[in-house]
Amino acid sequence: MRIDGNNVYVYDPNWVFKISPAKKKVKQGQPAMKKAINDDEVLMFKFNQSAGHSWAIEEDSDTGEGYSYTYKSTGKFYGLENVTTSAGTFANCARFDETIIDSSTHAGQSYSSTTTISRWLAPGVGHIKENESFVQDGETVELFETECTTYDV
Predict the structure, then answer these.
(1) 68 to each of 60, 102, 120, 139, 143, how far by Cα in Å?
(2) Cβ(21)–Cβ(34) below 8 Å
(3) 98, 75 in Cβ contact below 8 A?
(4) How many whole angstroms separate alpha carbon 99 and alpha carbon 135?
(5) Tens of pLDDT along 78-110?
(6) Taking Cα atoms as reference points, which of 72, 20, 73 lies closest to residue 44?
(7) CB burial string 7-28: b at 16+ within 10 A, e below
(8) CA-CA distance, 133 to 24, in Å (whole number)?
(9) How confident is the model at residue 36 (pLDDT cuts 50, 70, 90)?
């Protein structure tokens, strides 16, 4: 992670991954492989922005014999909110949403998904809450929430 003024950049090859159609032979039942999007850092958070401000985090696409995919990740600053977790209530938390849209076609089959991750960062504490939803081909597949349960300042 790198902080540059009001911008927070993230680089972690285990974190910045997507599912893309396989370019190599894969075992039956494994129609996709993980591929690193970018070997560089990505702009994850933009502080001191107006509520509703959005920016591109990452984009990628590729086409080959029998497959194609597109991937787009967008960040949005929603504003400041008060958030209650089992660790207490935190005032003026910055809420950031990341929306990831992924679509691919492989061997004549189409796939699309949208993942939305909401993150709240509390002043003087840091990351206190995260919600994630995953919608695949129009159907919600997974929802989960994590939150801060204790902290020391």
Answers:
(1) 11, 11, 34, 22, 27
(2) no
(3) yes
(4) 11
(5) 999 999 999 999 999 999 999 999 999 888 889
(6) 73
(7) ebeeeeeeebebbbbbeeeeee
(8) 30
(9) very low
